[in-house]
Write a structure and sequence with these properties.
mainly alpha
Length: about 90
């Protein structure tokens, strides 16, 4: 569970990077600064990719899919979560 919380924090930081890129792109567009516009576009892309990567549900995040001694395996093998996909 701790791993998921860290990923949420990193996804939040990635969103702020994307928002900063939006602001930089708008600033560059208003003052005709091509370098700032493209730097903002790159920051937007990095922020979006970072957020999507951090919030993607991987098969090892599901209960019972990690090795028994791994610290991420904090739920028992008989516990069933109805809100998680079961195709993994």
């Amino acid at each position: 569970m701790v791993r998921m919380e860290l990923r949420v924090v990193l996804a939040t930081l990635a969103i702020f990077v994307a928002l900063g890129g939006i602001g930089l792109s708008i600033h560059g567009s208003l003052y005709y600064l091509d370098r700032e516009v493209w730097t903002g576009v790159i920051a937007i892309a990095i922020g979006i990719v970072g957020c999507v990567t951090m919030l993607t549900l991987w098969p090892r995040d599901l209960p019972g899919k990690t090795p028994p001694d791994h610290p991420a395996d904090d739920s028992g093998p008989h516990e069933h979560h109805h809100h998680l996909p079961s195709q993994f």
